[in-house]
Amino acid sequence: MLDISFGSFPALNDGAPQAVALICHGKGTSEDATFKALDEATAGALGRAVAFKGFKGDAGQTLVLTAPAASLSQVVLVGCAAKDGSAATAVAVENAGGTAARTLDGVENAVLALTSDVAGFAAEAASGARLVRYDFDLYRTKKSSDHASLKALTVATSDVPAAESRWVALDAVSRGVFLTRDLISEPANILYPETFTARIEALREIGLEVEVLDQAAMQELGFGALLGVAQGSANAPRTVIVRHNGGGEDAPLAFIGKGVTFDSGGISIKPAAGMDEMKTDMGGAATVIGLMSALARRKALVNVIGVVGLVENMVSGRAQRPGDIVTSYSGQTIEVLNTDAEGRLVLADVLAYTKDRFKPKLMVDLATLTGAIVVSLGTENAGLFSNDDALASGLFEAGKQVGEGLWRMPMGEAYNRQIDSDIADMKNIGGRPGSAILAAEFLKRFVGDATWAHLDIAGTTWKTTASPTAPKGATGFGVRLLNQFVQSHEVRA
């Protein structure tokens, strides 16, 4: 994990070479004091390069000078200005911080500075740098020796106390994102319901309360939908309840995660191509656990409950069959027409149980639920479904503030009727057209009158290309979004 510190901009002399990145906003870059110091240290080479390359400080622009002076091994300029000339945003600066940290690869220590017009976002720049330097390398026996990996970054700012104060929360959130990425990246032979539970239980040391429902407890409660999914696997299921108590006697916010640690599809088996990525089908649960970690570490002033249903969906002689009928915790019966539509069965029991037992102020579930949402929205936005306009708006705005996009999808009775069954209360699929919506309608039947939203994160949990703040692979999408959302519900003195 990249070590972050804050301090004053260093003197650029003939001592040990330094690598420096400067985040710039707009056309005033050449008049900035830090830019002038770098230009002087490079005997005007930086200014000439800016003029020659046409660097204007726009978002996505970079300029790199290698060994421009005896005291400088590398100088990197990174732009963050919007094309419309509007003021800098936290998201833009965070992205620029990530781009800077990635570009600085090849050095172990570096300085990250900001021009005066974005200096107030020093902590956000540090956050972007931290997030992009994630590397899941537990199972590589040979590390790359081509370049030294960036290990420490000093963020130069004129107001160190303010940056350090802001960094406390962002540091906690980045650690939550890394936990989520770690969980999603683990292979299914390492991370299955029992071992996932053990990792959650380890979070007691940061102040979270953890309660585990084993298979016997779930059978007694009547978790017929979840247990039906799990019955084909040799790995027993778990439901894990995590509590953060920071809001006195207030009703909690509840976040519920789908935790299918591997999804073969069951008897409705998936194609072999790409099945390896089904280790990521616990992305919703991983996001909930990463969020709970972040809230505990930053001591959020709110009561929050995270509930995750952990199962493995496998093929065996004991596996659930297409056509089986199960009775859910809520008492409603479900005709299982497709065993690969299993995530909604897991969530059905966990949602109804959470509502009944904890009576939360609101519930938000997260799940890598449908391929249909990827067809609809690609990998840039997650699908948002809700029975409450205010909740949907709050989640949408929170995502906008941290750069994790949501797009609200329609729901309605015409969709809901498509999952009625001829021989049970409902069926778990209703056809291919609008199938992400039908999945949401299925979940809605288990939340009653609770204020509820469903985030289908199938397209945003795992990406095959890097972004300014994440390498390819597990993104940790949702942790920052929900942390931002939770802030609006915190108790203030």
UniProtKB/TrEMBL annotation:
Annotated residues for binding of Mn(2+) 2: 258, 263, 281, 342
Principal place of residence: cytoplasm
Co-factor: note: Binds 2 manganese ions per subunit.
Domain of life where this protein originates: Bacteria
PROSITE patterns recorded: CYTOSOL_AP
Record carries keyword Transferase: no
Residues holding Mn(2+) 1: 263, 340, 342
Record carries keyword Metal-binding: yes
Record EC number: 3.4.11.1, 3.4.11.10
Catalytic activity: Release of an N-terminal amino acid, Xaa-|-Yaa-, in which Xaa is preferably Leu, but may be other amino acids including Pro although not Arg or Lys, and Yaa may be Pro. Amino acid amides and methyl esters are also readily hydrolyzed, but rates on arylamides are exceedingly low; Release of an N-terminal amino acid, preferentially leucine, but not glutamic or aspartic acids
Keywords: Aminopeptidase, Cytoplasm, Hydrolase, Manganese, Metal-binding, Protease
Cytosol aminopeptidase domain mapped to chain residues: 338-345
Cofactor(s) essential for the protein: Mn(2+)
Family affiliation: Belongs to the peptidase M17 family.
UniProt cross-references to NCBIfam families, sorted A to Z: PRK00913.1-2, PRK00913.1-4, PRK00913.2-2, PRK00913.2-4
Protein name: Probable cytosol aminopeptidase
Species assigned in the record: Gluconobacter thailandicus NBRC 3257
Lineage summary: Bacteria, Pseudomonadati, Pseudomonadota, Alphaproteobacteria, Acetobacterales
